[in-house]
Amino acid sequence: MKREDNSINNKNDFTILFDGKSLDGWKMAGKDNFTVMKNEKALLSDGGMGLLWHTKKKYNDFILRLEWRVLHKDDNSGVFVRFPDPGNDPQVAVNYGYEIQIDDLGKPDGDRIHKTGAIYNFAAPSKIVSKPVGQWNNLEIKVIKQNYIVIINDQKITEFIGSRSLDGYVGLQNHDAKSKVSFRNIRIKEMI
């Protein structure tokens, strides 16, 4: 029997959501945008509050893997899962999906429920395991039924039982004009 490799670098059975070259299949809700950094095959948040979401498919149970990097200690962003079509309103993802937070300082109040790895406003991470500013971090989000597990840099830090929709889109938060957060190697595996 073949053993599955669960490392962040295993791309078997994963669908690539961002090709590193274009925003094909992605759409911005809200203002401002994400810039494609072709030399790094990455996306960089640019401007104010918004949501870059993958439009091609709603997902039920899945594993989402990606890498992220901050340029400043106080950068803020997040990854949204299982939200309905937001149209041009990024608050739809906030109100109907779940955000996996990226913000080591937990602004505005420093509360752990707002820090990196939290299911924002719902479940705090057990610890902060982000790498230093400027280094890439691995993020894995496992979503099975109402069970949510967040793994950062190969450490399970958050488990949560949700109560919202069992399907939806995935997206990236563009939090504010000062925050510069990059994303790359964005891929998903459906659990059927």
Protein topology:
Elements: E1 15-16, E2 26-30, E3 33-37, E4 42-46, E5 50-54, E6 62-70, E7 77-83, H1 91-96, E8 98-102, E9 137-144, E10 147-152, E11 155-161, E12 169-174, E13 181-190
Antiparallel strand pairs: 1-13, 2-5, 3-4, 4-13, 5-12, 6-9, 6-13, 7-8, 7-12, 9-10, 10-11
Q: Could you please describe the fold and organization of this structure?
A:
With 192 residues, this protein is mostly beta strands. 3% of the residues lie in helices and 42% in strands. It has one helix at residues 91-96; strands spanning 15-16, 26-30, 33-37, 42-46, 50-54, 62-70, 77-83, 98-102, 137-144, 147-152, 155-161, 169-174, 181-190. Strands 1, 3, 4, 6, 9, 10, 11 and 13 form an 8-stranded antiparallel sheet that branches. Strands 2-5-12-7-8 form a 5-stranded antiparallel sheet. The longest helix is centred in the middle third of the chain and has 6 residues, at 91-96. Mean pLDDT is 92; it is low at 1-11.
